[in-house]
Amino acid sequence: MSEHFENHDVNAGHTENEQHIVSPKVYFLIFLALLVGTALTIGASYLEMGPWNPVVAIAIACIKATLVVLFFMHIKYSSKLMKLTVGAGLFTFLILVGMSLSDYFTRAWGQW
Amino acid sequence: MEQQNETVSFGMWLFLLTEIMFFGGLFTAYLIYRNWYYPAFVAASHTLNIFEGSLNTLVLITSSFTMAMGVWCAETKRHKGLVWSLIATLILGLGFLGIKADEYHEKYVLHHIPGTSFSAEGFVHPSDEAIKAGEKPLAPDMAAKTEVYFSLYFAMTGMHALHMIIGIALLCGMLFKAWRGGYMNGHIAFVENFGLYWHFVDIVWIFLFPLLYLISRHQ
Fold first, then answer.
1. Which domain holds residue A57?
2. Would residue A110 be called left, alpha or beta, if left means φ above 0 and alpha means ψ between -120 and 50 degrees?
3. Which residue in B has a C-alpha nearest to residue A102's C-alpha?
4. pLDDT digits (tens, 9 = 90+) for A6-21
5. Is there a single domain that holds both residue A7 and residue A56?
6. Which residue of B has its CA nearest to A43?
7. Which residues are CB-contacts of B21 (< 8 A; sequence separation ≥ 6)?
8. N or C: which terminal CB in chain B sees fewer CB atoms within 10 Å?
């Protein structure tokens, strides 16, 4: 009988839900990481790195955005369905942007 | 209930993905034109106020943090914490728009707003201070292309600011309800989804800031 109740415990889903609450400590650490990232990207922009300047700037921005999505937007703690949806969206986005840019950037290929 | 909660944030994420595609189009246009009119984009980028841009990044990241704390307070049913988090987010959001307005005013003074009053004169004949800082004069036809840069600048930061204004309007309504004791019964889908929206607006700025302000700084 007791086993029967355990299997149909109405609080079972609730306790699992509680685990999704991200603690303020995590939020604060991510906040600090974002501040460090901002300082790094400003500092890096004053260094002469030739073609690597935009690459470094966009790479730091991507890392910061990933931290926001994973922790502030709770994707790290979400179900597989949510992770897959966000991943598929970003993948489609990268195809659209990447294909458009590779077309425009290679039109004058070899003419410089 | 678990499934209902997930459905709500799933729908919000689908909306945010369409928003990502929308801003992605603007970013792509920016990168293509930057590649075409590179010297004009470098010179125009140098006229942006890097201090105000950095300050705005700081303000927006902090507002994202206070909003995340607001979501936590709603989840753990902390009435005072939620109200104060939302007030802090509101003040920081308004601060961002204030700094942005000051930057727009600077563009107005310098005739850098695209349209009939636009003038690329400062790029053809840079001031003595600009030349001392290493600015090179542009040929008139290339200098005219700085208008493309400023068109994209206003389109991108303007759309971002519009999202901020909509967010602030929603935030005011949410703050009013929270102040009256709302969101303490576990029904916090609105707070959570507003949090997602606010963080998304933050992400857009995380990309706008380096692309518009920083990317050509060293030259």
1. 2-76
2. left
3. B32
4. 444 444 444 444 457 8
5. yes
6. B214
7. A92, A93, A96
8. N
